[in-house]
Amino acid sequence: MTEQLLLEQVVEQVRPLLGKGKVADYIPALANVSSNKIAIAITTMDGITIGAGDYLEPFSIQSISKVFSLTAALGLYEEDEIWQRVGKEPSGHSFNSLVQVELERGKPRNPFINAGALIIADLLQSRLGAPKQRMLEIVRQLSCNPKIGYDKVVADSEYQFSARNAAIAYLMKSFGNFDGDVDTVLKSYFHYCALKMNCADLSKAMFYLANRGKTLTGEQLVTPIQTRQLNALLATSGLYDGAGEFAYRVGMPGKSGVGGGIIAVIPGDMSICAWSPALDANGNSLAGTAMLELLSQKLGRSIF
Ligand code: GLN
């Protein structure tokens, strides 16, 4: 069976799940997205991208952006400078929880929950003159798509409803683990979340994670060891408190976002993006997880 046919089968077999789950509704801009969308795309080691379903339709990448921001920070800081501010452990709490931040004196568990990503956004703000512009350049380059942009409506809406993320940032500041102006860093963080990309863009962008740190255009973005480390963090923390379930069912490093996207990686093999907006109780795409599970079964591949 061709890979194209396989992806189409995955979409069709998972389509009946589309009534299940719940679209993120913490901001109106996301609540209005149709729950009927379903898509998957893969980029294989020969650099070819194929997809099925709505794989060319852009969506809000949300927390998938946390992979790009950590990668950008790795290019700007010594590793110790990053890991003294944020941990490497799975959280077992919801992605926007304040509880651990308080109990663990302002040091977030990992860079893929909101608290950790806010620390990374703070680090980027300190070293980059124009972090939002730089982030756009990075994702455009990684996806080979100069048209990628921010969804201003989503970014503004996130800012309007920013109480919880602001609380997390101020709590970390109270422990001395936040350098910049909270409002400025929040605005950058919300823009990263509001990047609009489709499954093809995202599977291309994540190619470096499958290719020992080398991008689709041949640039060595991170070292092979850093790539392995990023994949380890994704496997343990990329799906929040659903990371164990995801490892069990899908068996790949992955990162989800509340826009319904999930990226996943089979190192040395392919980078993948699945999208369907309705989420499970942990805030991970319900049909997206099912598609990745089915794909790993059909391919007979996982990292385990
Ligand atoms: N913008 C969302 C937030 O900060 C991102 C969370 C997510 O995708 N899990 O709450």
TrEMBL record:
GO biological process: glutamate biosynthetic process; L-glutamine catabolic process
InterPro entries for the chain: Beta-lactam/transpept-like, Glutaminase
Reactions performed catalytically: L-glutamine + H2O = L-glutamate + NH4(+)
Keyword Acetylation appears in the UniProt entry: yes
Keywords (A to Z) from UniProt: Acetylation, Hydrolase
Top-rank taxon: Bacteria
Gene3D superfamilies the record matches: DD-peptidase/beta-lactamase superfamily (3.40.710.10)
UniProt xrefs under SUPFAM superfamilies: beta-lactamase/transpeptidase-like
Residues bound to substrate: 63, 114, 158, 165, 189, 240, 258
Enzyme Commission number(s) from the entry: 3.5.1.2
Gene Ontology molecular function: glutaminase activity
Family: Belongs to the glutaminase family.
Subunit annotation: Homotetramer.
Protein name: Glutaminase
